[in-house]
Design a protein that fits this description.
Elements: E1 3-14, E2 17-28, E3 32-36, H1 43-51, E4 58-63, E5 66-67, E6 81-84, H2 96-101, H3 114-126, H4 142-154, E7 160-164, H5 172-187, E8 191-195, H6 199-205, E9 208-213, E10 216-219, H7 225-236, E11 240-245, E12 248-253
Parallel strand pairs: 3-8, 3-9, 6-7, 7-8
Antiparallel strand pairs: 1-2, 1-4, 4-5, 9-10, 11-12
Helix pairs in contact: 4-5
Length: 256
Amino acid sequence: MNSIISIEQLSFGYGNHEVLQNIRAQFPKGKLSVILGRNGSGKSTLFKIIAGLEKNYQGNVWIGDKERRKIKIGTSSPVRLGFLNQIHQTTFPFSVLDVILTGRASFSRFSPKKSDYNEVENILLKFNLNHLKDKPYTSLSGGERQLVLLCRVMVQKPDILLLDEPTNHLDLHYQVAVLEAIRQLVKEGTTVLCVMHDPNLAFLFGDEFFVMQNHNLVAVQSLEKEELHQLLEDTYELPLLGLDNQGTPIFTPLLK
């Protein structure tokens, strides 16, 4: 496997509270890898470490051939990293075009160039959002905002895109729209690592899958359907009914 992110014996805790324990994992280049798990299982903590937002960990996280702690913001790196957190709030009615343009800030130190505006126009066309470009960002629906924020990251042209719950609080239409947009980026060569709640959406759109359980990360790619079923029941502490959706396994709560 041609991995672009490698994790070796990664452990992390807050005081005496252990969150991650001796994690080993590899995330392949040019694929959509999904990390699943319950709230509070450590998914977002792992995301913060890979994104460089948390450096006080034990072990190693390799991005390409560089350890994560040695990659500094604003310095050149052979692998360009972009990330999108769960929470983004703004009270200022910036236009959609201006919000996306801020993603080009690292390319234009003083003021945007024509090439920066061209990149924004191109990404708006790519995501079929050109009709929104002059609208205030604050007037958009949650799904539209998430697509705009995805555009804002993509104008940075990252090699690796890290997404923490990109479909959180979205209705089904926009959950699918956002994941289809992410799937298109993967087809074009972007490596995506995504933290998600919903295993069914993950299995429909992802390539590689991992489950956070008992402070560790379990790769599920090689598991048989029955083993996967048991792992998910143990993880979510819920009896599940396994079904088939066009060849993809899906799981629904088994009601009493």
